[in-house]
Amino acid sequence: MNSPVTIIGAGLGGLVLARVLHVHGIAATVHEADPSPTARTQGGMLDIHDYNGQLALDAADLIDEFHAIVLPGRQSMRVLDTDGTVLLDRADDGTGGRPEVQRGELRRILLDSLPAGTVRWGHRVADTRPLGEGRHEVTFADGGTLVTDLLVGADGAWSRVRPLLSTATPEYAGTSFVEIHLFDAETRHAAAAKAVGGGSMIAPSPGKEIFAHREDGDTLHTYVALTKPQDWFAAIDFTDAAAATARIAREFDGWAPELTALITDGDTAPVLRPHYALPNGHRWDRLPGVTLLGDAAHLTAPNGEGANLAMLDGAELGKAIAARPHDIEAALAEYEQAMFLRPTEDAAFEGAEIKGIDSADNTAHGLLDTITRTG
């Protein structure tokens, strides 16, 4: 089987790339390990920034569809001290540049925008190898193979395409999230719902924090962030939900009950999400016929930019290919030169924007370092 453009990974970045190529009349196939689009949950809320994620959706000609799934009021933010004192309460007046959507809904509009058959589900990559002259062979776990003129790794942290370009591997970043959901918040978890407010809430402290989002359907999504070595988490039996919850909650002894309720009163078992990162400034030498985008290229610990950057990578790569369809190597070189700089530039933009909003509130225990985890 031959394919001119093969994208590995049906995450947001890979789907934006496929969509931008489609808008420009260029066919591509997306190969995804999951057996179906509903095989697993797609995460919680994402704030889509006007300086990267929204630009990508505009390039994909999906900005109206995006606005249709925005959840009003979710840009509001509260910062609480560990005793429950409100340090910051910022309302959503509808003018902010980072509207919130459910990640699953964003993925749905991207999938719906592609021709039937573009995404090949249940295609887990087992191996990739160069064939020369910019062509590559992809072998799938079921034994199937394909040969492609352009291979794009959009397959996340543990990319099977990255080894073609780089020997770098992700390393533990020193922090992890523990995720918990609380359902029917207003009626069953009223104190926690009041603490969170209408959008997001952060209760920061050195080495630990409780962050929560109000999602669609009256659901609170708690992210407990802990700076701990992996061995510390390995000693917790997460298959025993009650014991794991109690162990995590113990780290927050003495905190206000409306905050600890976001841990102890969960309606789902706690899920561990360790954070990994590639080396700072990760890059590679140009190799014909293959490139990377999103976490496959520049994985970092959560900083509010990951999904937005992946989408912008996909859009910029798609535009570069469309502008030089008969000189793909020039298109890839142009894309990579800009992409290598993008994570640093966008992180600097994000930090400057946040500082401009919240610098007056210097009682928020390092808020400026933690608030960027909203993406």
Spell out the blueprint of helices and strands:
Layout (H helix, E strand, L loop, with lengths): L1 E7 L3 H12 L5 E3 L13 E3 L5 H7 L3 H7 L7 E4 L5 E5 L9 E3 H10 L6 E2 L4 E8 L2 E6 L4 E9 L17 E12 L2 H4 L1 H7 L3 E6 L2 E8 L3 E9 L2 H5 L6 H10 L6 H8 L6 E7 L12 E3 L2 H4 L7 H18 L4 H31 L8 H4 L5
Helix pairs in contact: 1-4, 1-11, 2-11, 6-9, 11-12
Keywords: Cytoplasm, FAD, Flavoprotein, Monooxygenase, NADP, Nucleotide-binding, Oxidoreductase
Subunit structure: Monomer.
Protein name: Flavin-dependent monooxygenase
Structure description:
Helix 1 (12-23) runs parallel beside helix 4 (103-112), helix 1 (12-23) runs parallel beside helix 11 (306-323) and helix 2 (53-59) runs parallel beside helix 11. This protein has two domains: 2-72 and 97-169 and 278-358, FAD/NAD(P)-binding domain; 171-277, D-Amino Acid Oxidase, Chain A, domain 2. With 375 residues, the chain is α/β, with parallel strands linked by helices. It contains 13 helices and 16 strands. It has helices at residues 12-23, 53-59, 63-69, 103-112, 185-188, 190-196, 230-234, 241-250, 257-264, 295-298, 306-323, 328-358, 367-370, and strands at 2-8, 29-31, 45-47, 77-80, 86-90, 100-102, 119-120, 125-132, 135-140, 145-153, 171-182, 200-205, 208-215, 219-227, 271-277, 290-292.
User: What is the radius of gyration computed over CA atoms, rounded to a whole number of angstroms?
Assistant: 21 Å
| CATH fold category name of the largest domain | FAD/NAD(P)-binding domain
- What is the CATH-assigned architecture of the largest domain? 3-Layer(bba) Sandwich
Structurally, how many domains make up the residues? Answer: 2
Would you state the CATH class of the largest domain? Alpha Beta
Helical fraction: 25-40%
Catalytic activity: a tetracycline + NADPH + O2 + H(+) = an 11a-hydroxytetracycline + NADP(+) + H2O
Cofactor: FAD
Pfam families: FAD_binding_3
GO molecular function, one term: monooxygenase activity
